[in-house]
Amino acid sequence: MQTLLQDLRYALRLLARQPAFTAIAVLTLALGIGANTAMFTVVHAVLLRPLPFRDPSALVLVAEQSNIPTITVSYQNYVDWRDQSHSFAVPLQATQAASATLTGSGEPERLPLRHVTAGLFPMLGVTPAAGRAFGENDDHAGAAPVAMISYELWQRRFNGAANVIGSVLDFDAQPYTVVGVLPQGFQILSPADVYLPFHPWGATLPDDRNWHPGIVVLGRLKPQVSRAQARTEMVAIAKHLEEQYPVYNTGTSADVVPLQARLVQNVRPALLVLLGAVSFVLLIACANVANLLLARSTARQRELAIRAAIGASRARVVRQMLTEAVLLSLAGGAAGLLLAWGALGALLKLASAALPPSIAVTMDPAVLAFTFIVAVGTGLIFGIAPALRVRNVDLRETLSDGSRGSTGGPRQLRIRGGLITAEIALAMLLLVGAGLLLQSFARLQGLSPGFKPDHLFVADLPLSPTAFSRPEQRAQFFDEVLERARALPGVRSAAAASYLPVSGAGGIIHFNITGRPPKGPRDYIATGYRTVTAGYFPTLGIPLIKGRLFTNADNERAPAVVIINQAMAHQFFPDRDPIGQRLQLGATASDEVPTMEVVGVVGDVVQGLGLDPTAEMYLPYRQADQVLPVLRLSLVMRTAGAPLQQTRALRSLVNQINPNQPIVNPRTMEDNMAATVAQPRFRTWLIGIFAALALLLAAVGIYGVMSYNVTQRTNEFGIRLTLGAQRADLLSAVLMDGLRLTVLGVVLGALGGLALTRVLTSFLFGVSASDPVTFVAVAVVLVVVAGVASLVPAYRATKMDPIAALRRE
Fold it and tell me: Which of 203, 508, 668, 776 is most buried when burial is the number of CB atoms within 10 A of its CB?
């Protein structure tokens, strides 16, 4: 310990005497370690940190498996699953996300809501911060309406007042007694401010196993039951339900997956790729600092030789060098931690829509431990080369001729050149990856969604099922809103739809074609559907291909009509004119459901950038609301000026019609579409930032090596100039040295890139992982940057005085 303290004191004095060297090395390491710390903070929170529930490894998500990918189940299937399964420590629990308007306590506010079964909180091990949780007496049809609220709503809206417990709040114009407050930060699957019992809501659902209102089923495995055993049981139950209800459950099985794995499965590949990419930045930083230490070890060669001559063992000298490297790295780690802490907010803002909303990303002791381990490991990595070089120093030669001992020799030049080549190769890998993702994202953004998204204002209008329980009430409200919205200054047209395009949302419904009845359950057909008002297609700029569009005359008293898109026409009517064909909602024909005449075919609208168009039907709002109650429409207004300037006018307009009706999430259509490309944008931006850092560090490394080479070759250049060499020859020689290292690094990087960029294949759209244009463009950029970085040292070589150079030697 005494020796270690001596080494640390000496290292501190040495670093303090060389502030420029110390600052450059610490800054270089801070960039590399800081970027890794920030990225690891996200990876740890999302992929590694256990969910904040009791025994989270036993929590699973039970989902339906069918030809329509979804994690939700029908209410009836959930009830059967719960009653028939035996693999779980407690009966299966369910939750469903919705929203509700809080009124009677200040301004009306639309709040995210969750229906939860009474056993969900005990299963998760969650204890209320105030009041009590739901009991079995709260969670059945006909029970007194009770609610729990989030800690955040309790503080924001009620200032943490204790008397909120027992108070009555109006959600969607229905009074609920508040019985409890959830703990701070609690959320399951997605944030919510209001929690209501599940079964009173479930009892209002139609008796239709095709109806998927967003119910998610969670369970806790028994200690002696594996996930595979639970899945086998659930598949058997699903098979039995398929036999019992062939109309609804044909082709429907079940799956059991770990809850945490399911929450992060969409973002996991991108996070792992980004973590690998940022580790390349750290390796480049290590190579740069190793080069700096090699240069400094050359200048200190005589000092270290003297220490060895007076009794210090080679191991002792090596340990001193490694101590200095680790101390330098710890300083860089501390600075990197500060950089990561400062950059985390911007990183989370960039990634907000790409990460699971139920996971909080914060720095914790595990992140601090990671930074410490990385700092120490980094110090050992970049300290190895200088330490090994000191170990191999010839003491007699060094002490007999100080000047020669300070040259470093060709072996050190090869080591430093090899480090620069490695930096260039790693930078090549990152730049190629960034170039491919950038091209992919640009092509994704350049796709036509099938409508004109510019100058579109969007806002959601969710209605209270209590205040707007009858179809005529809903129709009157939306008609009045649309009529007044169209009269607003700067508004060219207005319409509404149940689901907006390119929003990641939409409904799916079974239907049958008149004259083509299904032969059995496996012939049942389904399609996407949207409920729209008259004027929807012209407002969005969706072209009419054939037939006509909806008008105000297509109301509840008129014959039922439907409009389909081209994809649906090609899929279901490939050999006939779809106009005039008759459809009926439901898997099989029924005299109780009216048939709808196809009156128009419109252009395809993609529901996610990069996705192929799918079959969709459009139903007129007034007619659809009679069969499928529509309590939420999104208003769309095409404006002459900036869309968001209409926000205040629309709020005032809606408030005049109904003071208790909020407008939710006013935004532009471009913003609405941007959410669907959040993950591509996130990974493109981050790998682009990492690539820029790599390019900067590689340029600094080339500059340092070339400067060092010029210094070491001072005698050679002086002799060459004395013998008549032209200064242009020296300039060319130095530039060629730099370019030779660069070209070698580019070749190695290109070979590695051809293999590693295969990892990006699943992230690319419209571009190959081996795209030659990207590889050539990146190679040119690296050569140009290397040439510029080598130019300053090369120019300095041409300006030297040959006599002075020979005299110094």
Answer: 668
